[in-house]
Amino acid sequence: MRSPVPGGAALFAQARAATKKESAMNIRIGEAASPTFQQPLALMSDCHRRVERFLGLLLRVTAEAAGGPLNPLQREALETALRYFREAAPKHTADEEESLFPRLRALDTPESREVLAKVQRLEGDHQTAAPAHHAVEIFGRLWLVQNRLETDVVILLQSHLGALHALYGRHIAVEDTEVFPLAARLLGDAELAAVGREMAARRGQPFEPGGLANRTNRLQPLPHHAAA
């Protein structure tokens, strides 16, 4: 087994905290310490921090354990990260592809048309990532069942995780710095409220009544809770 990756213990501790705060079968968002569904764009950006964190967990567990037996903390981290990408991450993709992107297309303004080509590439990223996530899920579950992976499988797992890390680095940067700020400027309160309601409905959570955050702080994130 390789020597521990620097910082790995802290990430594993975050996974343990996440497991305690989240239900066994559901990764919840929109809780008090996170942006709410009244701030859908900030909440989408907050989801990006979760993607980064749980992908980091997968990379660190794979680097540290190197296909060998998992200690309890590594097993917990692997289970938590796999569950996030299996259950919660697809809802984030739907938030973008079914709620946000169609409303940007409907604007049909010079500014929105400029970003639509990027939106199309972002949707392509989602399609590219899907088979890699599927492979990671299969290899990760195999590791949990067998408590070890063959060397060639570890190499494949590392390759898929590396590809996802590179893809999400580009993808998230475009959304956080270009697409979401544009949406904050161009979408009205009613449109953003509709996005927030749809996000809440996907998660079986209420969309609490009240005004949306004003246009200047629509993208300002609130503190992340432990599962972020």
What structural keywords apply?
elongated, 228 residues, 0% strand, mainly alpha, 6 helices, single chain
Order of helices and strands: HHHHHH
| Mean pLDDT over the full residue set | 83
SS elements, strand count: 0
Radius of gyration: 18 Å
Please give the share of residues in helix. Answer: over 70%
- How many helices does DSSP assign? 6
Question: How is the secondary structure organized here?
Answer:
Layout: H1 8-21, H2 40-65, H3 72-107, H4 110-146, H5 151-186, H6 189-202
Helix pairs in contact: 1-2, 1-3, 2-3, 2-5, 3-4, 3-6, 4-5
Report what the structure shows.
With 228 residues, the chain is mainly alpha-helical. Helices cover 71% and strands 0% of the residues. Helix 1 packs across helix 3. The radius of gyration is 18 Å and the shape is elongated. The model is unreliable at 1-6, 19-27, 213-217 and 221-228 (pLDDT under 50).
Quick recap:
It is built from six helices and no strands. With 228 residues, the chain is mostly helical. Helix 1 (8-21) crosses helix 3 (72-107).
